[in-house]
């Protein structure tokens, strides 16, 4: 059933990636308690929000990239600070940018279908991924690869393929009037969520594909 190819992620996104250099690596650990709602609740504008992804063959070769849609979500704001939030990613919305598939013998639509099947994200069995904030802290000095203007460290539970891991990354959070935005870019290890193409580490299908998946999240929410 499996065939050698390249992967790309998601999610969940959540989530990131432009076509540039490798981004800040997110710290991943065990699931944590979700932050409580406080203050005012802002509803995520799904039309203005997005998750981008980028993945590679080993050594950074043959990058593939694309998008995922945010289906629902909310952010809570207390004392003009982000307190909590969560959003759901529609895994069936996974798209591959045609510009990332340049080989004449390959089609981006074939890659989309492969990423959605049981070899990777099994979207029929796991149609959504989600991210739930567990902690937000001030960020004094962002790393060189952090998103421009990063001012917070955000931790949250990212669930992919039914498995939940807590990830921590630098983010740019802005609260203006009745609007809140959260932007971040970072790298995750797909193996932490059990996303494996090969049967084990010795399988060529597994070692041909980088474990790094770049994720970029851009979430906008408004107070109703």
Task: Describe the structure using short key phrases.
224 residues; mainly beta; 10 strands; disordered N terminus; YceI family protein
Topology at a glance:
Layout: E1 27-29, E2 40-44, E3 50-57, E4 64-78, E5 81-96, H1 108-116, E6 128-138, E7 152-160, E8 163-176, E9 179-189, H2 204-207, E10 209-223
Antiparallel strand pairs: 1-8, 2-4, 2-10, 3-4, 3-10, 4-5, 5-6, 6-7, 7-8, 8-9, 9-10
What is shown here, in short?
With 224 residues, the chain is mainly beta. It has 2 helices and 10 strands.
Q: What is the terminal separation in angstroms? A: 48 Å
Sketch the topology as an H/E string, one letter per element: EEEEEHEEEEHE
* Helix run count: 2
Compute the gyration radius: what is it?
17 Å
Low-confidence stretches: 1-22
Report the average pLDDT across residues: 85
Helix content: under 10%
Helical/strand content category? mainly beta
Share in β-strands: over 45%
Number of E strands: 10
InterPro entries: Lipid/polyisoprenoid-bd_YceI, TTHA0802/YceI-like_sf
Protein name: YceI family protein
Pfam family, one: YceI
